[in-house]
Each structure stands twice: as structure tokens, then as C-alpha cells.
Design brief:
The chain is an alpha+beta fold. It contains nine helices and four strands.
Length: 389
């Protein structure tokens, strides 16, 4: 399902196209190491013209060419990182839809069991109307059944809505009945998610890696700014033909050329200063990105711990609610409880069981968000490369 969604994802396809484009840009940047062939034709008058071809090979340029290649490589790394981020987002989205489908399916099971128990209460109440209980209590049961049927319809809608969204992402109808209900994602996320362990993974977060690339880019820009005013050395092979009213003349020569830019104001000396500020800003952005990721991970870990602490309490609530229903049923049969007590106890049991389902799937979603934030979701579920295993 995940593979099919990734294959059809327009966002991932666009990111893949940008990645291919940047790979071409890398090749173009590397071509700067090769000799440059140029030429021109000049017609100065009806009888005078000049034709020249020049083959120029840069010998030394203070790292300008290699710097431009490094910048192209960094840009390619940024696009590749963008591709990975889009893939993480697409995987998280499709898995959350699968969790929504599974959660709603579990709710349907609980609601059907609840309706069956209410129907038994209705039958019990119907058999005792007029002798032991009045019709008002029977109406109370019918109202509870109607409310449960409304909740059941809402759960069925959530199942269908999740299937529709999955079908839209995958491009075909999907039968998810082969999946475990509830989805057992713990096979992927059984690791310890304590902050002491997660802190070691913070540098792998896409936001931090992008900031690291920004620092590298600023460092190269600073180096290029310092090289701008320095002379460049190249070797030129020149073939020239000149024609005038006295005849034609051909010249071939090899020249060592030293070229230095002519400055306009002090711009060449100001650019290194500007690049230094840009580098400082990039370092600050990296610190900020790391801090934001750390806070996000910490918030998710706290949420996961909170849900883990709630789990045994909700289980106790479920057991207590079931015991209460059993006790109230026995007391009802001997006239110590009325139907409202039974319906209220059943409602409490339903609420606790639905809360347990919500808690379980909320825990799984928190883990999805955590690993997606760290850029590890695709790796966790075995999706690599182009998103198709």
C-alpha cells in the first residue's frame, strides 16, 4: 500500500524531477573544468574583417571553479533532502489513514457489541413492562440504542472516508482486510523513545541537515567572495585571420593570460564582509533548527509517556465498568436497580472501551510523527531510494 502510494504521489514525482534537474546542473558545473572554446567574427569596414577562435583552459583561479562545483553539489544535496522530506510526509500521511481506518474498525466492533448488550436490555425491559418497570425505562433503553446507532454510523463513515482517501492516493481500490486490526505498528516502533536515545538522532532530522547544508553553502560563498578580486591564470590557444585591403594574414599563438577584474568602488572588499555575516546567520539558523527539533521531539516523547501512563488507568476503568454492569444486572433482577442504572453503566463501559481505542492509536500516531520529524520513518518501514522497495 505504501509503495503504491509513493509511486502515484505527484509531490514525490515533482521532487524526483527536481532531483534529476539538479543532477544535470551538477554536470554543467563540472564542465567548467574543461577548456572553453569561443570565437567571433568582426567586420570593421567593407574591406576589413577579423575572424578569431580561442581555446582557453583555466590553470588557477583561487578555487572559484571548485567552489562553484561544490555549490552545485550542495544544491543537489538540498534537493535530495527535499525529496526525502516529501517521501517522509507521504508515508506518514498514508499510514495515518491506515490507522484511521483501523481505529474506526475497532470502534465498530465495540459499538456492535454495545448495541447487542443494549438489545438484550431492551428485551429484558420489554418482558417486564407493566409488572416490574414502566414504559419510561423502556424508552430510556431505546434512546440509548438510537445514540449508539448514530455513533456506529459515524464510525462506518470514518472507515469509508479513510478508504476513499487511500484509494485516491494509491490510484485503485484497496482491500485492507489483510491488515491486522488493530494495525501492529510496534514491529517498526518497538524501540526505546526516551530523550536520552532520541537526542543522539537529532542531527539526522531533515530540518537540522538542511541547516547544516546552509552553513556549508555560506562557507563556500565566503571563500568565493575572497577570491573575487584575485587574478586568474589561464592558457589560451588562439587562431586568428585578418583581412584588409592589403590582403589576408593568419596568426596562431599560445598565450599565458593573467586576468584581474577592474573594481567598481570597494565592492570586492565588501563582499567578504557580507559573506561573513551570512555565515554567522546560517550558524544561528542551525542552532534554532536544532532547538526546534529538540522541543518537538521532547513534546512528542512527553505525549507518548502521558499516553503510556493513561493506558493502565483506562484498563482499570474498563474492568471496573464491566464489573459494575455485571453487578447492576444482578441487582436489577432482584429489584434493587432500575433500567436507567443499567443503561448508564453500559454507557460508561462504552466510553472506557472507546477511550482505550483512541489511546492505542494516538500512541501509534505519536510514534509516526516522532520518526517523521527525525527523518527516519522511511528507514523504519523499509522504504529506501526512490520509495519503491
Amino acid at each position: 500500500m505504501v509503495e503504491a502510494a509513493l509511486r502515484k504521489s505527484p509531490q514525490l514525482e515533482a521532487a524526483r524531477s527536481r532531483l534529476s534537474q539538479q543532477q544535470v546542473e551538477q554536470e554543467i558545473a563540472r564542465d567548467a573544468r574543461w577548456p572553453t572554446l569561443s570565437g567571433f567574427v568582426e567586420q570593421t569596414s567593407a574591406s576589413e574583417s577579423r575572424l578569431q577562435f580561442r581555446l582557453s583552459q583555466t590553470l588557477y583561479d583561487w578555487g572559484v571553479t571548485s567552489g562553484q562545483i561544490d555549490l552545485a553539489d550542495i544544491e543537489a544535496n538540498k534537493v535530495e533532502l527535499e525529496f526525502e522530506q516529501v517521501r517522509e510526509e507521504e508515508i506518514e500521511a498514508i499510514l495515518e489513514l491506515a490507522l484511521d481506518w483501523s481505529s474506526a474498525g475497532e470502534s465498530i466492533k465495540v459499538l456492535n457489541a454495545h448495541l447487542l448488550r443494549l438489545q438484550n436490555l431492551k428485551d429484558l425491559a420489554s418482558s417486564r413492562v407493566g409488572s416490574v418497570i414502566d414504559r419510561g425505562e423502556l424508552s430510556r433503553v431505546r434512546a440509548a440504542i438510537a445514540g449508539a446507532q448514530i455513533e456506529l454510523s459515524a464510525a462506518e463513515y470514518r472507515v469509508q472516508d479513510a478508504l476513499d482517501q487511500i484509494r485516491e492516493r494509491v490510484g485503485r481500490n484497496m482491500n485492507l482486510n489483510y491488515l491486522d486490526r488493530p494495525l501492529n505498528f510496534n514491529q517498526w516502533f518497538a524501540d526505546d523513545i526516551s530523550m536520552s536515545r532520541m537526542s543522539k538522532l537529532l542531527p539526522s532530522a531533515p530540518a537540522v541537515r538542511e541547516a547544516d547544508l546552509g552553513i556549508l553553502e555560506a562557507q563556500i560563498e565566503k571563500k568565493l567572495a575572497r577570491s573575487e578580486w584575485r587574478p586568474r591564470v589561464s592558457l589560451d590557444a588562439i587562431a586568428e585571420r585578418t583581412e584588409d585591403r592589403f590582403g589576408a594574414d593568419t596568426d596562431r599563438r599560445i598565450a599565458l593570460r593573467i586576468e584581474s577584474p577592474i573594481f567598481q568602488g570597494l565592492s570586492a572588499f565588501k563582499r567578504p564582509e557580507s559573506a561573513e555575516y551570512a555565515l554567522s546567520a546560517a550558524i544561528k539558523r542551525r542552532d534554532l533548527s536544532l532547538s526546534e527539533v529538540r522541543l518537538t521531539v521532547l513534546r512528542l516523547i512527553h505525549s507518548a509517556n502521558l499516553q503510556s501512563n493513561r493506558a493502565p488507568l483506562i484498563n482499570q476503568q474498563i474492568q471496573a465498568a464491566r464489573s459494575t454492569v455485571k453487578l447492576y444486572t444482578q441487582q436489577f433482577r432482584i429489584g434493587r436497580r432500575d433500567m436507567s442504572d443499567l443503561v448508564g453503566a453500559e454507557s460508561e463501559r462504552l466510553s472506557a472501551e472507546l477511550s482505550a481505542i483512541d489511546l492505542e492509536f494516538e500512541q501509534l500516531k505519536i510514534k509516526l510523527q516522532l520518526y517523521s520529524t527525525l527523518g527516519l520513518l522511511a528507514r523504519k518501514i523499509g522504504q529506501k531510494g526512490e520509495g519503491v522497495s
